[in-house]
Specification:
By secondary structure, the chain is mainly β. Helices cover 6% and strands 37% of the residues. The chain has a domain of 179 residues. A hairpin with a 4-residue loop joins strand 12 and strand 13. The longest helix is centred in the middle third of the chain and has 10 residues. It is globular and about 45 Å long.
Length: 257
């Protein structure tokens, strides 16, 4: 596949077990130097079920870029996308899935494409793994730590909470412990990019095909997690999910109100 020459050009290549991003740029992959939309060539035929692969990474402000429904904030090292409240009761195994994913067991659902999320995470230099994840909760998950937040407008007020506030931990008999999640990445299977095919974005249980995983004890137990309705808006209320790399500049973290 020929790669067009441009100060910042991205080519995506798929292989049987992994994929890679290749940058051609002057002085390194500095997103701030992008002056025109960043075109993403369609992947090889082996990559299936991936809509929008000809989308462009479009600069929309200083350090801000849009790819489909996904927004990249380079300065805050954050990725955000719209979602809606999908469940307010019952057992859950996921925090966020796509509308074509396992919506019967997820707090939120989104139209954002996991393929687009994977691309912007890679642009930020986030590291995951293509290996199997350890089932033993005593063993750490491979990948970079991230913070997950959910925000929405309540009248004139913007409300923001850590995602853990909306998950009940049966073992602890309370809210899921506050802390980081882990960007584990996903993998290429015979049927395509796993996170895209399954629609799995943020998982509460151990799922090597989801983009993000929960590192806490209890992730090995499918029945441990329930929806926690404290502060959770009504069904179908629009929210924004933000995923930030830890170590973001001071002042970038929003406090729950």
């Amino acid at each position: 596949m020929p790669v067009p020459r441009h100060p910042l050009t991205l080519a995506v290549f798929f292989a049987s077990a992994a994929w890679c991003i290749i940058f051609t740029t002057l002085g390194g992959p500095d997103l701030g130097s992008a002056e025109v939309p960043l075109l993403i060539p369609a992947p090889a035929p082996a990559a299936k079920n991936i809509p929008g692969t000809n989308a462009a990474l479009v600069p929309i402000g200083p350090g801000l870029f849009q790819l489909g429904d996904v927004r990249l904030d380079k300065n805050r090292r954050a990725v955000s996308f719209p979602a809606v409240v999908n469940m307010r009761e019952g057992n859950i195994e996921y925090l966020v899935v796509t509308t074509g994913g396992k919506t019967h067991e997820s707090v939120f659902k989104t139209e954002a494409q996991p393929f687009h999320l994977q691309l912007v995470f890679l642009l930020l230099g986030v590291r995951g793994t293509t290996n199997a994840l350890p089932e033993d909760p005593a063993k750490p998950l491979p990948g970079d730590p991230v913070v997950v937040e959910v925000s929405w407008n309540a009248g004139a007020e913007l409300r923001t909470f850590r995602a853990e506030e909306f998950v009940h931990d049966r073992r602890a008999q309370g809210a899921m412990a506050a802390g980081n999640w882990v960007y584990t990445g996903s993998r290429i299977r015979e049927d395509g990019f796993a996170a895209q095919v399954d629609g799995s974005i943020v998982s509460l249980i151990t799922d090597a095909d989801a983009l993000l995983n929960n590192p806490r004890v209890g992730r090995e137990d499918d029945d441990n997690w329930l929806v926690r309705t404290n502060h959770l808006p009504a069904l179908n209320v629009p929210v924004e999910v933000t995923i930030r790399l830890t170590g973001s500049p001071k002042g970038s973290e929003k406090k729950a109100r």
